[in-house]
Design brief:
Two copies of one chain form a homodimer. By secondary structure, chain A is an alpha/beta fold. The first copy, chain A, has twelve helices and 25 strands. In chain A, the strands form eight sheets. In chain A, strands 5-2-1-9-21-20 form a six-stranded mixed β-sheet. A four-stranded parallel β-sheet of chain A has the order 13-12-11-17. Chains A and B meet through strand 5, helix 4 and helix 12 of A and strand 5, helix 4 and helix 12 of B.
Chain lengths: 420, 420
């Protein structure tokens, strides 16, 4: 600390973890600087809805400045962090260096291609609004091109959509693409029949969809996807992706549109903090979420590899990041009062995935597990409640009510269209 | 006509004119092909709202396929038209040639820089959703950069916004940027005061704002802009635009953000139809809106230069395009029944421009002219009523009600952000 100055807390990343920490610090005698390379906080669980033209970007994103406007001790900055100097205690950014007394790294994860980065061009992932709009454009354009296709073969390839990875994101994308094809677009084309002629193939390397979920819910999800005519291919690994399609251990699939939902890697900034990051780039943290040897440097959320005080490996989900952020604030508060820091214990509040219009699976703790319409309603409520601004809640609810009643999706624009 | 086949009508452009013609042809024994290089119909009068983060793109755009889904005799195609062969009666496109028995060119206008195309990079126009999102990003980023500016000089340059051209578009943009600065963002920044430190300069080569409007309304608009602290500079011409700012006949203005609302040129396809297009590229048409010597080829809307049967020069406004489209259908219908074609007479239904939250000017015919809140309410109603889908109407109304009550704008995202 510099003399009488309040301690400077620098938070990198305004996702679930970083924002939770920033807001919780409102009552502490510190000065907070929250740095993000975007001007908005993104509600990632609903990105797949933007990607499938169901919601607008602004329905699931809120300007960081708005969220923090009333918080006197916090300023938000739009900048790219280029490095971290633990010795001089500085964060290096595109707009200059920032000194810190405490640093919280909360930069999350990005998609990973297992060493095959050249696949990214043909199979975008889904981590940002730009990703979602890119995928949206590809899906809508594929149908437009199919309408004009000269050959049966070409038309089939254009109407084949492959989703790689059957975790929650992949399952949700697969279900939503089927919905567009079977409901939204079904009357819009003259030469193609989107309902019967399009196919969605969901590829999973492991033996089941939704790997982290219990078997009962895996079965429920599989059944619901089957009823939606999603072609599930488990125990299948992708070996190559080109603009012609996807090569797998079970053969080649000609496909115009491929979405990557199979792997994540931690933000590269994790490696600025530690030398012993794991294979995904996540940096290991101690029991209070600080970096070994640097008690004033913390890592939370998807960029950190956390095993909590009850020896539970903490999953890369939003509630875990938020709890991590709040825990770091508890540590800082303890420091300022000369008390001992608490250790981190993760409270699992349950998981959910939605599979289209009125189907979902949900579990709460390890006991309550259910699927179908009840799960879907709960999923909807939880997600809307979690959206950060009242405005987003109202707009998202109304978008979904509209979609449910009319089968129309609200954001069917092809924008940024250079190729025709 | 090819034997027993119904006549094939090809319409290029799904703006106000092309869409009006397509829909009106529903009752005719023809086959319609509507070609556009975007998948959506755009309500251009509200583009400035997208550019100033007040509305989402999907609020003012509707998928063409949805609009025409129920029309059996019309198909929509996503393609770029590359040429027109009047001899073989073919439209050449990025997906192949299309034969026509009737052709309607309705490709509208784009922005023009009076021979200085290199200005476009620094001063985008406002004709498409991509334009609007580009301008939105520039405006929001300018404030973000100003927050971090090192010098007074740099901060002032970053918070200076220049709008070139004081027609309705320029006036609306200028007012809306002042609104963002004085209402929406006023609490969001710590180092800058957006209300007192930002300035919006509206440059107009002629002697008054809103050149096509009567003097009484010009005065009303000037007064309202003055109250919003928009700096109006008439009798001022732009001579250069660089990334540092704008050079005018009255001196240099350092400015980060420049919006071009000063000149339009007809779509280049006009020159495919006629050799004697005017200086803006608009092609001349005969009394029934067909091209001289080619009675089965029509041009309507901003791509055409129209003087109607009462010798009125027809302005480049949406109602004129729609009336043109409907007139062409009347001509085709007359042909099919062996009757004489009607001549085109334009009915002026009035003009409007809005200048921020509760101010506007409006005139109906040449008699009723009024400004202020009543005009603004009327403007709102007319624009919402004109939006093509019920969904857009509801969303836009709710966005505006929200904005009015809370000063929050609904789409404050910076997306597609490569530069930081």
């Amino acid at each position: 600390m510099a003399g009488n100055q309040p301690p400077r807390v620098v938070i990198v990343g305004a996702g679930f973890g970083g924002l939770a920490a920033a807001k919780k610090l409102a009552d502490q005698p510190v000065e907070v600087t929250l740095i993000d390379r975007n001007n908005h906080h993104l509600f990632q669980p609903l990105l797949y809805q933007v990607a499938t033209a169901g919601l607008n970007p602004s329905d699931i994103a809120a300007p960081i400045r708005s969220i923090l406007a009333k918080q006197e001790n916090c300023r938000a900055l739009l900048a790219e962090v280029t490095g971290i100097d633990k010795e001089s205690q500085q964060v290096l950014t595109s707009v200059g260096p920032f000194d810190y007394d405490y640093l919280i790294l909360a930069t999350g994860a990005t998609h990973a291609y297992f060493g095959n980065d050249h696949w990214e061009e043909h199979a975008p992932g889904l981590k940002s609004i730009e990703d979602a709009l890119d995928i949206r454009r590809r899906i809508l354009l594929a149908f437009e091109k199919a309408e004009l296709a000269e050959s049966e073969e070409e038309r089939e390839r254009l109407m084949t959509f492959v989703v790689v990875g059957a975790g929650p994101t992949g399952v949700e994308m697969a279900g939503a693409i089927r919905e567009i094809a079977t409901r939204t677009l079904k009357k819009d084309f003259h030469r193609i029949d989107t309902t019967t002629q399009s196919q969605v193939i969901l590829i999973e390397a492991g033996p089941s969809v939704l790997p982290p979920f219990p078997p009962k819910l895996q079965r429920s999800a599989t059944e619901q996807l089957f009823h939606m005519a999603v072609d599930i291919r488990t125990d299948t690994r992708v070996t190559d992706i080109t603009d012609a399609g996807v090569t797998t251990t079970m053969g080649f699939i000609p496909a115009e549109t491929v979405v990557w939902a199979a792997g994540v890697a931690a933000s590269p900034l994790g490696r600025e903090l530690a030398d012993d990051c794991d294979r995904s780039g996540r940096c290991p943290v101690t029991a209070d979420l600080s970096i070994d040897g640097h008690p004033n440097v913390f890592a939370i959320g998807d960029v950190a590899s956390v095993v909590d005080a009850e020896s539970k490996a903490v999953p890369g989900v939003a509630p875990a990041a938020e709890q991590g952020g709040e825990h770091v604030v508890a540590c800082i508060a303890a420091d300022l009062e000369g008390l001992q820091r608490p250790t981190f214990i993760y409270k699992d509040k349950g998981s959910m995935a939605t599979i289209g219009r009125s189907k979902a699976v949900a579990m709460i703790g390890n006991k309550i597990q259910f699927g179908g319409t009840a799960a879907w309603a709960l999923w909807g409520l939880v997600h809307v409640a979690s959206l950060i601004s009242f405005r987003s809640k109202v707009r998202t609810m109304s978008s979904w009510i509209w979609q449910y009643l009319t089968d129309q999706r609200n954001a069917r624009l092809i924008t940024g269209n250079d190729e025709l």
